[in-house]
Every structure is written in C-alpha cells, then in structure tokens.
Amino acid sequence: MHQSRGIRTLRTIAGWLVVGVFFFPIYFWTTVAFRNAKDIFNWPPIFVDFEPTARNFEQVFGISLGFGFGAQEAVTPGGGNFYMAPRLWDSIVIASMSTVLAIVVATLAAYCLSRMHFRGRHEFVNWVLSTRMMPPVAVAVPMFFIFKQFSLLDTYLGVILVHGLMNLPLAVLLMKSFFDDIPSEIDESALLDGASRWTIFRRIVLPMAKGGIAATAVLCFIFSWTEFLFVLTLTQTSIKTVPVVSSTFVTSIGTAWGNMAALGAAAIVPAFIVIMLVQRHLVRGLTMGSLKQ
Amino acid sequence: MAVAQVKRIAISDSPIPWLAPLVALLVVFTIYPLFYNIWLSFHEYFPRKRAIQFVGMQNWQQLWEDTRFWSSLGVTFVYFAIALVFEIVLGMAIALLLDAELPGFGGLRAILSLTLVIPPAIAGMMFLLMEDAQFGVLTYILNSLGLLDKTTPILATSSTALAGVLVAEIWQWTPFMVLIFMAGLRSLPAEPYEAAMIDGASAFQMFRRLTLPMMSKVIAVAVLLRGIDLFRVFDYVFVMTSGGPGTATYTLSLYAWQQTFSFIKWGYGATLSLVSLAIIMVLANIFIRVFKVRW
C-alpha cells in the first residue's frame, strides 16, 4: 500500500510515541536505581534532573564503586540488610540448572513426538499442553508438603526441580516444532544405512537443531528467572531469587526503593541481553511453537 | 522397497525410552498434585491437635457460603476480562501501527519485547512506586491531566485499586499480543488485499473482511495462552495490594494461597485451588474446541 509522505511521517511519530509510553516505566525504574532518597520522594516527581549516585548498587552488591562508600555500610540505619549479591547467585544457579533439566528431558521427548508414530501421539501432545494450564498455586501447595517430607524445602535442588518441571510443556512443544522443521527424509535415509535412532538423534538431528535448542533454553531461563510463586512458597531463609527478595524490601519503616530498583535493574539487564539474542525465534517461543515467524 | 523398510524400522521404534523421563516428571508435577489436592480437600489441618483429619464434604460445602470466595471469583473474572480485552484491542492497534517499514521500527519491536522478560513481581513494584499517592509519577501525570484527585491513593481506594493493578498487567503483556499479531500480519498473503483495493474496499473493510479472518488462528493461540495466565494471576496482586483494600483485588489464586499459608487452612486452600484448576481446564478446553486450536 502506498501512503503519502505526510501519513508516513505521522505514523513514524505515532509508533515512536506508543513505544515510548511502554518504555517509560523501564526508564524511570532505572533512574530510581541511581537516585538518592530525596530525589525519589520528591513532589512533583523528578523525571530527568536528579543527582546520580551509585550508592544503591554499592549497598546491594556490597562493593565500593569508588565514591567513598564501603561494603560494611550495606546494613542501613533502619536495620534492613540490602546486601543481595547471594540472591542474584541463587537466581543464576536455579535458572541455569532448571534450564538444563528441562532441555535434556524435553529434547528427548520432542524428538520422539516429532519422528515416531505411535497410537495416542496426538492425545499425548494435548496432555503435555494441558499441564501448562495447572495454576501454580494448585501445584505449589502439594509440592510444599512433599518437599517438607523429603527435606527439599529451601534447597536449590527443590526449586530447580519445580522450575524445570514448570518449563517442560513449553520446552517439549517448542523443541518439537524445531524438529518438525528438519526434513524427516534425513532420518529415513540414515535409518536405511543402518544407523540407530539414538545415533541419528545425537549425530544428525541435534547438531541441526542447535539454534532451536538455544532459543528454547533462553526462554526456559527467563521463565525461571522471573518466576515468583514457587520460590515464594518453597524457599524460606537460605535461598531466594531476585523477584521474591525484592518484595521483602517493602518494610514497615518504608520501602527501600533505590535499593530495590538497583537490584531489579541488575536482574533485568541480563534478561534484556539474552532476549535480544533470540528475537528471531521470539514469537515461536511465546506461542509454544505454534506460530513460526 | 526402501519405503517399506523405513516403515518397518519406524514401527519397531519404541517411544517409551524417549518419553519415560518426561512422563515421570509430569506425573510428579501434575498427577500427584492433582490427587493430593483432591485428598486434601476432604481433610483439614487442626493446628491445636497438630493433625490432619477427615472432614468429609465440609470444605466443599463451605464454598457455597463463603462470600470471600465468590468475591475472589468475581474479581478474577473481571480482571481476566478487562485485561484480555485491553490487551487484544491495544495489541492489534499497535501491531497494525508498527507493521510498516518506517525509520527505526525494527528497533521499536525489540524494545517492546523488553517488558516480557521483567519478572512480574518487579513490574508490580515498578507500578507500586509509580502509583504511590505521595510521590508517584503516574499519580502526578493523572493529577496534571485532571483525571485523578490528589487525595485518592490509587491502590488504597476500592474503586481504583483493581484498575491500578490492571495498568501493570496491561503494560507488561500488551507487547506479548503486539509481537504475536505482528508476526501474523507479516505472514498474510498480499493478493487478497490487491484484489480488494481494485474493488475499492476501505481500509476498515479490508481489516474486517480479510485481516481478521486470516488472523483468526493467530489470535486464538495468543488469547488462549494469555487467558490461561490471566486466570491464575497472583504476582501483581501479591506485591501491589495483597488483595486489598478490603477484597477489591483478591483473586482466586491469592485467596487459595493465603488460606493455605496465612490461615493454615490446608484443606480449604486445596479446595480453592481445585476450583481454579477446574475452571481453567473447562474454559481452555471449550476454547480449544470452538476455535480449533491445534499444536
């Protein structure tokens, strides 16, 4: 469709404005991470013109960025401890290990669902999809009791298991869609040459699906990274991920917005970077492999 | 000959070793919790005796008389419906706007995808700060536009609290719809539009008669996946309002969670999660049938 120059200019501006509105909260939150309290609690709120400080990050990470402020002071006069570097580590361990678990199990199953013909295959795929519908609260409560029994509460292993399981429907369906893209004639000719299914899977199909595996892994990582209810329910004091620990910054003596924003920004930036790497497969991932870009 | 041979090998393939790990894990994650919840819904924990005892149908009967349950169900449906309508309509409008090769639009799509990787609990915090009555930037903007009285704290007023939570929800997930709809729009064939142009169809007619029908599968998938998540909303209300003021933002998931962990009503909490599960399953399966969504 050919549009006049004027309409194209208007449309460009409108597009930028709309996305600007969506970007504004991210911008504002990031600036809060660099503000002193007086620039956060100001009325009218300050949009641009504040005095930047690295103090919030120093407190959260227990490091000195060379502005004359040390790690010892991470405990604020109010009594809140904002040293959160270990919580970031918890998030990294849980997200990466649960991703490995989900990818290994899902890749095996997805190859089978993509290539082998057996009775009830369609129903099986539907069952996997339906497990995506479980409300987390309906899973978290029974998990809490079984974890209590097996001493898995408040452990890495427990949360890794649950996050891995939580990502299985996504990982299986997404990996299946990537395997479906690889022509099955390749498998068939290798079968004729006497290769076993396992050899074909490992030597031929897996290397061809590398890009798809990477995209699936990134999405699993992000969903574990952002998950809230399971961590809230299944951890107590020794481990916590960033989203859950952020909610504890709201205290009776006030909310440490600057520290919270610093931690939040530190948690969001890695996610921004990895999501940029998988833009090409993003829609396929968001729709669990149902839609290809 | 070759085909027959491949077929023979393919038939002798056993899916069991490939699927066994998945099935084992899914049973732990779905079948076990399901049966545990059902069992627990006929029991209750008595803190004084420190014991779980059989109570028969008591928890299920309690549902009928529990006004907080009905109100949480109402809040959940209202939240679900408003969020879904806004996300679909805004998502489609923005997708149509951005579906063009104009300066910087590729970058705009990437920026929109950023909201999706923010933990919803942190997105809730962002809006909690921005909607603060004393110094919130959103409060300030709404004040300046004359849309909100300065004395009305958004999240602490029953009539506006749900809207305050929905703003965070809609902000974070409209881009989900935009990205999916844009992928759908880009995959549409050009010929029908060229034919319609020759016939002198208006832009709206083309949208109504061509775009919407051809996009129906894409829209159905997006609505199904978003709808499932909307019905089990927990993070935003937990961090922004904890269900308050009163019961204005109490969703079913939050109510079930609180019954279990705050009020130590394990049996009743399980009953409530089963209700939530049943509603999602029924609605999602009807939706899948009606709109013929297939994976």
Automatic annotation (TrEMBL), chain A:
<feature type="transmembrane region" description="Helical">
    <location>
        <begin position="153"/>
        <end position="174"/>
    </location>
</feature>
<dbReference type="InterPro" id="IPR050901">
    <property type="entry name" value="BP-dep_ABC_trans_perm"/>
</dbReference>
<dbReference type="GO" id="GO:0055085">
    <property type="term" value="P:transmembrane transport"/>
</dbReference>
<feature type="domain" description="ABC transmembrane type-1">
    <location>
        <begin position="88"/>
        <end position="278"/>
    </location>
</feature>
<feature type="transmembrane region" description="Helical">
    <location>
        <begin position="256"/>
        <end position="278"/>
    </location>
</feature>
<protein>
    <recommendedName>
        <fullName>Maltose/maltodextrin transport system permease protein MalG</fullName>
    </recommendedName>
</protein>
<keyword id="KW-0812">Transmembrane</keyword>
<dbReference type="GO" id="GO:0005886">
    <property type="term" value="C:plasma membrane"/>
</dbReference>
<feature type="transmembrane region" description="Helical">
    <location>
        <begin position="92"/>
        <end position="113"/>
    </location>
</feature>
<comment type="similarity">
    <text>Belongs to the binding-protein-dependent transport system permease family. MalFG subfamily.</text>
</comment>
<dbReference type="InterPro" id="IPR000515">
    <property type="entry name" value="MetI-like"/>
</dbReference>
<comment type="function">
    <text>Part of the ABC transporter complex MalEFGK involved in maltose/maltodextrin import. Probably responsible for the translocation of the substrate across the membrane.</text>
</comment>
<keyword id="KW-0472">Membrane</keyword>
<feature type="transmembrane region" description="Helical">
    <location>
        <begin position="125"/>
        <end position="147"/>
    </location>
</feature>
<keyword id="KW-0813">Transport</keyword>
<keyword id="KW-0762">Sugar transport</keyword>
<feature type="transmembrane region" description="Helical">
    <location>
        <begin position="12"/>
        <end position="34"/>
    </location>
</feature>
<dbReference type="Pfam" id="PF00528">
    <property type="entry name" value="BPD_transp_1"/>
</dbReference>
<dbReference type="InterPro" id="IPR035906">
    <property type="entry name" value="MetI-like_sf"/>
</dbReference>
<keyword id="KW-1003">Cell membrane</keyword>
<feature type="transmembrane region" description="Helical">
    <location>
        <begin position="212"/>
        <end position="236"/>
    </location>
</feature>
<keyword id="KW-1133">Transmembrane helix</keyword>
